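hey
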């Protein structure tokens, strides 16, 4: 690991109202400068027709794509799907097999995995899995951002809260 890389923590969560259904992600990027000042940004977005797993991946992508220089990024997620894809080398194996998984079946969400790998290219990533809905402040905040984004996407589908004019 390069010692001069900026260290950033990326907290992320995904949500889906139905699987598939309206969904969203919530992401927090946190940086602490040399004087100990904390800088934090929150991001979220909703999608009309998605899955929970896609939103878990999108949350990490969104955070990484916001970084404007190579960083050491600690990704904190309650998604074993995302964490294990890196920590257990699933991504490497899938790529070596031509994006095939167990039973020689195509891997789901290839488009997002490829986008995630591109977003991660210039960074050093480290992953920490945390249990979801277990009182972890940042995970709870990301969940709130994700579910609010999913709810906004659901309202757009149903036309709720639209003004006639």
């Amino acid at each position: 690991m390069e010692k001069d890389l900026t260290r950033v923590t990326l907290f992320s969560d995904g949500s889906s109202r139905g699987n598939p259904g309206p969904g969203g992600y919530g992401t927090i990027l946190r940086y602490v400068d040399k004087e100990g000042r904390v800088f934090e940004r929150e991001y979220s977005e909703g999608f009309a027709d998605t899955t929970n797993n896609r939103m878990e991946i999108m949350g990490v992508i969104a955070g990484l794509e916001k970084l404007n220089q190579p960083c050491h990024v600690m990704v904190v997620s309650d998604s074993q799907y995302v964490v294990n894809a890196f920590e257990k080398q699933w991504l490497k194996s899938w790529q070596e097999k031509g994006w095939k998984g167990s039973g020689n079946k195509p891997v789901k969400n290839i488009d997002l995995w490829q986008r995630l790998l591109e977003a991660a290219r210039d960074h050093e990533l480290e992953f920490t899995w945390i249990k979801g809905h277990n009182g972890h402040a940042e995970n709870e905040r990301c969940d709130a951002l994700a579910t609010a984004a999913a709810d906004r996407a659901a309202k757009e589908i149903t036309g709720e809260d639209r003004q006639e004019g």
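The two ends are 58 Å apart (CA to CA). Helices lie at 52-66, 80-87, 90-96, 110-120, 137-158.
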